[in-house]
Structure formats: structure tokens, C-alpha cells
Write a structure and sequence with these properties.
With about 110 residues, the chain is mainly alpha-helical. About 40% of the residues lie in helices and about 5% in strands.
Length: about 110
């Protein structure tokens, strides 16, 4: 699968849930490519902006879309890596703030 194919697939399925991709297509495609690299590396598409352990069970919370996407987008208009965003964020009606890490320290692999 290519990043473009992943884009088309996820755009439809996640868009139906109200999540949009970042309108910066370059950024979006880099993240989608990183998801595919992680899928090849680990066997699952874990968040490219977080360190994965390589253990699917331990990383379940950061398999994209991660468990933190919904609260991040609700609060900040964007997920942690700015892959998924709200319409307001894409249109510049929401401030582009730093999204803090929500993953509990006990889940971090370091």
C-alpha cells in the first residue's frame, strides 16, 4: 500500500467519523508514510510521533488512530501529531496550539 492509497482509504473512513486530515498535504503524506513504515517495522501502524515498544499489546493505545485523538481534537482541534484535525483547525478558525502528550508515563517505553 502506498501513502496515497492509505490517504484515500482513511480520508473516507475517518471523515465519516468527523475527522479531517491536516490540509498541509506534505505534512499529512509524511505522517502516512511513517505509519506505513511502522506497519512494516512492527506489524501495526503505531503513531509516528511516539516511541513504540514493538509489543502490540503495550502499544494498543497508540495504534493510529490512537486513543488520544478524540480528546486532543476536541480540546485542541488537532491530534498530537497534527494528522487528524477539526474543520475549524484546517480553516484557521482554531488556534494551532501545541498538543501535550496524554499518554500516561507508565506506558512510555523509556
Amino acid at each position: 500500500m502506498t501513502a496515497q492509497e492509505l490517504y484515500e482509504m482513511l480520508k473516507e473512513t475517518q471523515g465519516a467519523k468527523g475527522y479531517l486530515f491536516n490540509s498541509d498535504l506534505g505534512h499529512t503524506m509524511e505522517l502516512l508514510e511513517a505509519l506505513l513504515i511502522n506497519k512494516e517495522r512492527y506489524g501495526y501502524m503505531c503513531c509516528p510521533c511516539r516511541l513504540a515498544s514493538g509489543d502490540r499489546e503495550k502499544d494498543q493505545d497508540i495504534i493510529c488512530p490512537c486513543l488520544y485523538r478524540a480528546p486532543d481534537v476536541a480540546e485542541f482541534g488537532s491530534c498530537y501529531c497534527n494528522l487528524y484535525v477539526s474543520e475549524a483547525w484546517n480553516q484557521g478558525r482554531a488556534e494551532h496550539l501545541y498538543v501535550p502528550e496524554r499518554r500516561p508515563a507508565g506506558k512510555l517505553p523509556y
